[in-house]
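hi! just following up on the protien thing from before. the input was this:
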Amino acid sequence: MTTEREDEAAEAASSEGDAATAGDPASLNALLEEEREKAQSFYASWQRAAADYQNYKRRVEEERSETARFANAALIINLLPLLDDLDRALHNVDAALAGLTWVDGIRLIQRKFLGVLEMAGVQEIPADGQTFDPAVHEAVSQGPGEEGKVIAVVQKGYRLGDRVIRPSMVVVGQG
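and the predicted 3d structure came back as:
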């Protein structure tokens, strides 16, 4: 049960095939060349689609890793004030309390916290005694000391990989 249109298409194909098989080399060559062009066109289209797919996969993977990096950075930025508080608390422990076990416990907690940050790729930015670098240091004041050198650190700075997530707040010598 075929439609008229299907019947007409079958007859046209049959008549083309009959003309080509009739032994007319010119029509056979023309038909062959036409089919080669179609095949070449399909092949080129397939190559473009494959290249587009590879580019898409690479772009999605880059976006995924970028999103994960930014999520880690946001979490770490929120945790850095806790580390600052631990540093201040341990720095200001009275000498009479220094040997108590609970103070040692807090020091261990601080070390573990630093270890976790290091495993996440966080590094402290060296500042004290370094030449002032506006890319990684933020000058909060100036004081007597060697010009252009960091003479005191107000707040430690950190980087995540190669990206500064918090610059060091420093006092710079004015000479």
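The chain is about 60% helix and 20% strand.
Residues 25-91 form the longest helix (67 residues).
cheers
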